[in-house]
Each structure stands twice: as C-alpha cells, then as structure tokens.
Amino acid sequence: MSAAPRAEIRHRPLSRRARGAMAILVAVLVASFLASLSIGDTVLSPIRVIQALFETQGGIRMVVVDWRLPRALAAVFFGAALALAGTVFQTITRNPLGSPDVIGLTTGAYTGALIVMTTGGSSGVAVAIAAVLGGFATAALVAALVAGRGALGYRIVIVGIGVSAILAALNAWMLLRARLEVAISAAIWGAGSLNGVGWAQAAVPIIVVTALMVLLGFARRGLWLIELGDDIGTSLGGRMNLTKVGLIAIAVGLCGVVTAAIGPIAFVALAAPHLAKLIVKNGPLHLVATALTGAVLLSLADIIGQNGIPGRALPVGVVTLVLGGVYLIFLVVRTARRRF
Length: 340
Fold this sequence. Notes:
By secondary structure, the protein is mostly helical. The chain has 15 helices and no strands. It is globular and about 60 Å long.
C-alpha cells in the first residue's frame, strides 16, 4: 500500500475566531463550575470556595468538597460524555437527529434499569449494569432493524423513534404494575437528576466515562474517515465496518454509564455537537469543543434546575427536556427548509 492511504488526515489550523471561541467556552465552563460550587442554600464567594478546596476540615469544606464538588464534577463529565456520544451517532448516521436520546438508547437504558428495580433488585451496581446492558440491547435491536437497507441516516432515526416509543410504553406499564415505593423511586430516577449525587455515586461513573472518552480520542481518526464516506475511508486504509462497530460501542457505553448514574438526560447529546461545529469545524479540536459544550450545557442546566425556582429544585433532566424540545423543533424546521 502506498504512503498516501496510510497518511493521517490533516486539518487546517484553527482560525483566530475559533481560538477565541474555544477560550470563551473554557471560561464559561470554569465560571459555571465555580458557580455550581458557590450557589446554594449557603452562598459562598468564589475565593471562599477555592480556599475550602484546600482545607482539611470545617463546615464550609463539607459543603463544598463533600456535597457540591461531586455533583459539579458529575455535571461536567457526564455532559461531556453525552455530547461525545451524540457526535459519534450523528457522524455515523449522517443525520443531525441521530443522537442517543432520539433513537431510543437512553429509553432502553431506563428499561434495563426498571426491569431490575421492579423485580426486587435494589443494588445500585445491579441497576447500573442493567442500564448499560439495556442501552446496548436497544442499539443492537435498532441496528438489526435497519441492517441491509438504504438511507441509513433517516431510517435509523425513524426506527429509533419507533423503538423508543415502544420502550416508553413498556416502561410506563412496568411503573404501573410496580409497588408504590418502587414506582416513586424509579420515576424520580427516570426524570434524570443530579440531586443527592455524592462521591459514592459519582466516582466510579466518572472514572469509566473518562476512560471511554480517552478511548474515543484514540479512535478519532475513525470518525474523520466516516465523515469522508465509506469508499474514501476504505481507500485511506480504514476498516469501516469494524470502525463503526467500535465507535458505536464506545458511544453506547458513554450514554449507558451516564444513564445508569443519574437517569435519562435529553437534549445534551443532540445539541452539543451542533453547537460545537459553530465554534470549531471538523478538525483536531472538534471532539474537545464538543465535550466542552456538553459539559457547559449540563452544568448550566443543573444550576438552573437548582436555583431557577426559589425553594424548588428541579431535576436536571426536566430542564434539558424543555430546552431540548425547543431546540428539536428548531432543528426539524431548519432541516425541512433545507431539503425542500
């Protein structure tokens, strides 16, 4: 094979505008992270928050390090994970609607968790494993239903929406048949919430999604080859089918782990890749921009959920669902206008 097919894909350097936008994105993420540590029943200044991070004892340290820090870190890492999962699916399906929440993977993960919850399983580990397996099973089902047929992008979205609707009905049926206390617990988890997330709930999922994100970083060349098309990708030395399977496995893992930890979260996986492309076109830092955008979206949504209505803390999934509904309508209308 000649040297050309083995050559890495080269991208143009970032423009001054893109570098400035990336800097602003990082600044917004840092600001939202500090705000999530500062705002609450006890309002602290950013300087006091930073001081508390280095203290070894005291009430303020407990508030910042033990209560708020794991939740803030979970919002950042889980938002980034969902965003990266979304960009993988949108790239493979070549469809702006091809995100895990639209094609039913988060619903399938919820189904897996519900099966364990409503059959007497109370272990957090069992629920987490069931959620991840539910996401993989849903992905396999959607893939089997669209295999060997044309127009993969729109077909997989349509089939995914149908599968998601069926699973949502199954989830409602299981909740209706479950014991009252189980149904209430499952419904609260199903809303997607960072409430009550501490180190015990956040540490392992953060480590797992970090490992998957690093793995995706090593596999980023596969995404670029997929963007070029199967024929060109194959001519450049890519094994396209194997590449797609590997990337889908990583994306489903990211989505499943987040869903297992905090429940289904809508909007982030759908919108973050689109917003990131406004900052950095497909290039070496596109995945970085996507991860940062997802982290910002979930972090800001959690701040809004905690403090938007005085005296009431909304699940972050409710906030992202409202924002996602508005964004989905905008995206569908814009896509329809372009096609017609």
